[in-house]
Amino acid sequence: MSKTKEELLEELSDAVVDMDEELAASTAKEYIDEGYDAYDGISEGLVDGMNKAGELFEEEEYFIPELLLCSDAMNSGIEVLSPHIERSRSKDEKIVVIGVVQGDTHDIGKNLVALMLEVAGYKIVDLGKDVPPQAFVDKAKELNADIIALSTLMTTTMPRMKEVIDILKKENIRENFKVIVGGGPISQKFADEIGADGYSVNATASVRLAQRIVS
Amino acid sequence: MKSITFKPDNITIQVKKGQTILEAARKAGIAIESPCNGSGVCGKCRINREQIDNIDALLIKKSVFSENNDDDSYILACNACINEDVIVELTNNKESDLKILSKGKIFAFEKKTLVKKEYYEKEDITKIYYNEKEIAFEKGNTKNENYGIVIDIGTTTMVASLVDLNTGKELTSESVLNPQAIHAQDVLSRITMAHEQKGMELLYTEVVKEFNNLIDMIAKNKGVDPNGIYEIILSGNTCMIHLATNKNPTSLGEYPYEPAIQGGSYEAAKLHGLHLAKEAVLYLPPIISSYVGPDITSGVLATQIYKRKDNSLLVDIGTNGEMVISKNGDLSATSTAAGPAFEGMNIEFGMRAAKGAIEMFEIEDDDTITVKTIENAPPVGICGSGLMDIVGELVSHKVITKSGKFANPKRNELPDFLSERLEKKNGKTVFKLSEDVYLTQKDVRQVQLAKGAVRAGIEFLLKSQELTADKLDEVMIAGSFGYHLRTKSLINIGLLPKEFEDKVDFVGNTSKTGGQAFLMNKKYRNEMEELVKTINIVELSNYDNFEEVFVKCLNF
């Protein structure tokens, strides 16, 4: 007996939460074979699972390895579903330009934030690590981005975040973008001091932050 | 202006309205721990409300810490602004009882000092030679008064060792806290501080002042005239060596993380106003890389790891895990950002190794738990060695699962004496260690990050020499902190691979003992200056798969 769409969506979600790469792929295949909509499979199945994983991360149930394993499972499902997507992604998709600021090469935290924001439906443009302040601004301008997300693990490179904001002000485009900051030594106080639009303590909180400031 | 009085020292100073208690304390020269440099994150500067005479004199601002903590019996010194005159009673700000270890492994080094003294009976003078050159003379026969000093500058603590240059024997050693730590806890905050001229000056002058205190103290203890100390070796991590010799460390704090000096160099000690003979010479051992400093060079020398005909590893576990691997004397080195968890920071009840800190924790076979605190005082917190013991024991008894999560007593089978200690605090599971001290889930996560970083460093070093864990013959754990650790815990938490069991040796403060060898023979200076050029530096951030390996190393 074939399963309903809702049943399969739940199984997709569960496969991601349970970090089961193979199950996510095989369930995705079953879902497509039943003729259900691929886009829904991603957004209401796989991404739903990833969101649940994010909640578990926040509740300290899951840690970085689990979060990454969940994302592997999600991606294996997406690989199956994405060739079947007919609709293009919505036009009002928000764009996030993200990177580790100049002078710093620690990018694990940034990668997690990029991952969670992407799951939440943002288009991520990842500039990588050791990114000069001007490069953030140039890319954000070029793409007409919504958010510039800056990360650093080192106290020494924190001033680079303010430089990005200063450049935006100097070019009179500060209001065009929301700037969010994060990383080991960063705090809300620091974000306020440099005039950033927001700070989040971890990857999952960054999604709520982004939603709050660009809704 | 408002006045603030700090008790029990009874120091009163005037400050501008709105300044924080922490700022006032710094101005008054009073130590309040502030590892996060007053950003309201760490909560270590908390003061009990009862210790403030008039709480309404303060404007208490919100902080990250207060938002995440329901306990409002405390305020944070960094977030309490002075509105009216106030008296603050400080306790526990004395750390004189800190446990710092100064012993260390050393080899039988040959004695051939640069400083030599010769007595000339006819003129009744003693000539002083440095590197065969006469540099000064003294009246009378002072041949027996010939001393050198080694100072190991750690980020947190400093150890000075007075050595008789005629015999090579250490006469005494003393340790103190690094005074810079009050202003900025870790290496990076200090680099940030030194970025500004004023900050650099403060860090430099404070550390030199403390050198002089140390020198005066040990000279007085041994009845030695500081004018009879002719040479000083400064060992320590790269950043500390920069700050101690008034070199700006800014370049260390940004990619590509280059040091401003290379070490292997000499300066006149009087340049820094050190209380030594006016001709005294200062030697800096060579730096291996920006995050593998002269302390590790000294360690390489002290352990003779470069002369070994086997496979061995030297690891210094601290805020940065610095390590050197030797394959038949072929060396690779790396450093890894472990963070301050092992020093008790970022841990809910974390503290330094002072009175009342849990330093040992063991779950016995008869279902009892042994908790040992420093000086057997009632437990008030957890120090680094205690933290590793606690997490290690809880992992091996399945109270903490492989993924680092506290077990669920309903789902996982746990003996009662353990499951009853798993409690809920603020809605979150904690493991109770005593009435007031507990381990949180977040603490376990911090340990995972720290040990994951060190372990990943070890994995990359092994790979750099095409070795596997089982091929190692000896693993040496250096650092004063390392001495208090137990192999079992290091393996239980996975900081070290289990293949290292039975191969671990705690070698103590080899930064100091290696410094002594540098002091006693010029040959070792030349040898190390040449050797560091041949050491292969493994820069972890250049490896694409670092993240993958690190994440793998997070699990227990």
Automatic annotation (TrEMBL), chain A:
Q: Name one GO molecular function term.
A: methionine synthase activity
Q: Coiled-coil stretches, from where to where?
A: 2-29
Q: What GO biological process term is on the record, naming one?
A: tetrahydrofolate metabolic process
Is Ubl conjugation among this UniProt entry's keywords? no
What are the UniProt keywords, alphabetically?
Cobalt, Coiled coil, Metal-binding, Methyltransferase, Transferase
Q: In the UniProt record, which is one GO cellular component term? A: cytosol
Please indicate if the UniProt record lists RNA-binding as a keyword.
Answer: no
Q: Where is the B12-binding N-terminal domain?
A: 1-93
Domain B12-binding per the UniProt entry, residue ranges: 93-215
Give the residue spans that cross the bilayer: none
Q: Which family does it belong to?
A: Belongs to the methylamine corrinoid protein family.
Q: What is this protein called?
A: Methyltransferase cognate corrinoid proteins
UniProtKB/TrEMBL annotation, chain B:
Domain 2Fe-2S ferredoxin-type, chain residue ranges per copy = 2-94
- Pfam families reported for this sequence: Fer2 (PF00111), RACo_C_ter (PF14574), Raco_middle (PF17651)
Superkingdom of this protein's organism? Bacteria
Recorded GO MF terms: iron-sulfur cluster binding
Q: Which SUPFAM superfamilies match?
A: 2Fe-2S ferredoxin-like
Entry's Gene3D superfamilies? 3.10.20.30, Domain of unknown function (DUF4445)
Tell me which PANTHER family the record gives: IRON-SULFUR CLUSTER PROTEIN, IRON-SULFUR CLUSTER-BINDING PROTEIN-RELATED
Q: What is this protein called?
A: Uncharacterized 2Fe-2 and 4Fe-4S clusters-containing protein, contains DUF4445 domain
Task: List the taxonomic lineage.
Answer: Bacteria, Bacillati, Bacillota, Clostridia, Lachnospirales
